[in-house]
TrEMBL record:
GO terms for cellular component: nucleus. Residues 512-527 have a biased composition (Low complexity). Residues 145-219 form the Xylanolytic transcriptional activator regulatory domain. SMART domains: Fungal_trans. Residues 512-538, 593-630 are annotated as: Disordered. This is Putative fungal specific transcription factor domain-containing protein. Transmembrane segments: none annotated. Keywords: Nucleus, Transcription, Transcription regulation. It comes from the Eukaryota. Pfam families: Fungal_trans. GO terms for molecular function: DNA-binding transcription factor activity, RNA polymerase II-specific; RNA polymerase II cis-regulatory region sequence-specific DNA binding; zinc ion binding. GO terms for biological process: DNA-templated transcription; positive regulation of transcription from RNA polymerase II promoter by galactose.
Length: 630
């Protein structure tokens, strides 16, 4: 769904807003893009702003283009303090009969269209294309954002931003800006790929080994201590986010591109997540926004950093939750009579439980930002993270795979966040409707409706930060064997008749909070060297046809495929029963018979209800996953 913005009879004039308004919009831009985007050197940009207002008639058109794009993004993302003078200015701009943010964007295009400089590939055009992509995201135009980001990446390739040897001719400030711009492109690339389910545009194979390395901080003698501390936190937050996106890229390549996952692959990625968790600076720990009031700029940095990290965990562990859901569905339809005892059962349970707990924690942090009154209404990153987490919580409540004592609080938080954002954001309005409809379907389900269950499996109770403010859901993921796992029947003996190996337990649950931020970026938080897929994608592996032995049920016999050596993999196509032909000569699949949904009350989770016969001429055409399958 793409948002449509009409300016009616309004036309861009290129007139700058008054200086007070400009300062508010610029401050909003730098505050609300923290840890996700660092397009400019802030001091150099403010100097450029001063020059434009001192002599607007002689201002360079490319500078004005960038300035108007910053105004547009700053206005869309603005969340000024309630009752402040800044709120009055923002409210006035938003109350106009046409979208002032869209008018700012059209002014930028009129003054110097970055697309027109695409062939020349000037550095400013890369900045402008990236800013355009960010604006399109915030304006609920995700397809356009993806296209503009792709243009920015290819222009950056032309300028050599992905190669460290191309930086030798520039001074220290220019090198820092170019490196941070490339890192911002990398972050947005992984977010768009995970959000839209599309190929990544940046491959590590094509980049220098240190292309994502944090540049050296340049503290100026005249800068105040507060300014230096802010600059340090910004740099650390961006570096931590790059590290998270490396892990997301690894997950997309090794899991989603191949459409299958094993516990071994998952554990390999978990090791990187554990390194991230262990080295997270205390100044960015999520406990800060739960335990005390923080400055909005600092709060946004903490929120963005941690929500992206939790989303990377959800991306990794969600297939295990879906596998568990499919297993319960098999038992429900009688498609499986095997006992729930296997060498991989406790691993699946562990990953699936982490998925639910990470989703719950996502909603807790986002609600804290909403209560702290610094959450923007049009933040595309937070909206996507909250929506993905809400679907996990609602799915768990429907299937009753885990007992969540705080589920109603989490769902209410998700709905309140999305409703708040829906007042200004079209995408939030859409996903809010989906979440509320799902929730109402759960609430209105008859008490007599059959519940999913797995024989022999005790329903665990998840832990939440609302029950224990010091609880960290990630620690559950990093322990190979907890007390609950030792009690699991499948954990008593492994596949080879041996007990699973213990993993060292991490020391503290919550890192100690320091009153001041770190003065430099920890060397251990340097991005790991992970391989990303090429823009063309990874090679395709062969899958089975997903048609299980559950006769007439349309349910795959099992979502776990045992491989040689006792390793098991979750094949995504068996989760949905989507056939994946291994060659051009593969036979066309036959749609399974329809299954009644009455056993689930007003709705079911079985095969999609596809009518047989002449009513659907495309009944034998294989279905493809939607673009948001991730």
């Amino acid at each position: 769904m793409e948002n449509t913005i009409s300016l009616q009879d309004a036309r861009p004039t290129g007139v700058l807003p008054d200086r007070r308004t400009a300062d508010i919009l610029v401050d909003s831009f730098f505050t609300n893009t923290r840890s996700f985007a660092q397009v400019f050197d802030k001091k150099a940009f403010l100097d450029s702003l001063e020059e434009c207002y001192a002599d607007p008639l002689n201002a360079n058109s490319s500078r004005l283009c960038l300035l108007f794009l910053v105004f547009a993004i700053g206005l869309v993302l603005a969340r000024p303090p309630h009752g402040s003078a800044e709120e009055a200015v923002i409210s006035k701009l938003r109350s106009e009969r046409v979208s002032r943010a869209e008018l700012f964007y059209r002014n930028a295009r009129m003054l110097a269209d970055p697309v027109s400089g695409f062939e020349d590939a000037d550095f400013w055009s890369v900045q402008a294309l990236l800013l355009t992509s960010l604006y399109m995201l915030a304006a609920s135009k995700r397809n356009a954002a993806y296209v503009y980001h792709g243009m920015a990446v290819r222009s950056a390739f032309a300028l050599g931003l992905h190669r460290e040897e191309s930086m030798l001719i520039f001074n220290e400030t220019e090198i820092r800006v170019r490196m941070n711009l490339w890192r911002t492109l990398f972050i947005l690339d992984k977010f768009l790929s995970a959000c839209l389910g599309r190929p990544m545009g940046i491959s590590d194979d094509d980049c220098s080994q240190n292309a994502l390395k944090p540049p050296v901080l340049n503290t100026r003698p005249g800068d105040s201590l507060l300014s230096q501390e802010t600059e340090t936190i910004n740099s650390i937050a961006l570096n931590v986010t790059v590290h998270t996106c490396l892990i997301i890229g690894m997950t997309l390549k090794k899991v989603y591109s191949k459409r299958r996952i094993s516990a071994t692959v998952a554990q390999e990625i978990v090791d990187h997540l554990e390194h991230w968790h262990r080295e997270l600076p205390p100044s960015l720990h999520w406990g800060r926004i739960l335990s005390s009031q923080v400055d909005p700029a600092h709060g946004i940095a903490i929120l963005h950093t941690n929500l992206l990290h939790f989303h990377s965990v959800i991306l990794l562990t969600r297939p295990f939750l879906l596998s568990l859901l499919t297993k319960a569905q098999e038992y429900h339809f009688g498609g499986s009579d095997k006992p729930y005892r296997s060498s991989s059962a406790w691993k699946i349970d562990n990953f699936a439980q982490t998925c639910v707990e990470a989703s719950h924690h996502t909603l807790v942090l986002a609600k804290a930002a909403l209560d702290g009154k610094y959450l923007p209404q049009c933040n595309p990153f937070v909206i996507h993270f909250v929506f993905a987490a809400a679907l996990i919580i609602l799915s768990n409540e429907f299937a009753s795979l885990y007992h969540n004592p705080e589920a109603e609080v989490a769902i209410t938080s998700a709905i309140s966040i999305l409703r708040f954002c829906a007042d200004e954001d079209a995408q939030a309005e859409r996903v809010s409707f989906i979440v509320e409809t799902f929730h109402q379907a759960n609430v209105n389900r008859p008490a007599t409706a059959r519940r999913l269950f797995i024989p022999g499996r005790k329903v665990p109770t998840i832990n939440t930060v609302l029950q224990n403010s010091h609880y960290d859901p990630m620690l559950h993921l990093f322990h190979r064997e907890s007390s609950e796992q030792r009690d699991h029947p499948a954990a008593i003996m492994g596949a080879q008749g041996q007990l699973p190996k213990d993993r060292p337990i991490m020391g503290s649950i919550v890192p100690p909070m320091s009153s001041s931020s770190s003065s430099s970026i920890p060397s251990s938080m340097m991005p790991l060297t992970l391989q990303q897929p090429s823009p063309e994608g990874s090679s395709v592996v062969s899958f089975n046809n997903g048609m299980g032995s559950g006769s007439g049920s349309g349910i795959p016999s099992s979502s776990m495929e045992t491989l040689s050596g006792g390793e098991s993999e979750i094949d995504f196509d068996t989760l949905w029963n989507w056939p994946a032909p291994s060659g051009a000569s593969a036979a066309m699949p036959i749609a399974p018979p329809m299954q009644p949904a009455d056993n689930f009350g007003s709705y079911g989770i079985g095969q999609p209800q596809v009518p047989l016969g002449g009513s659907n001429p495309n009944v034998n055409v294989p279905l493809y996953p939607p673009s948001n399958f991730r």
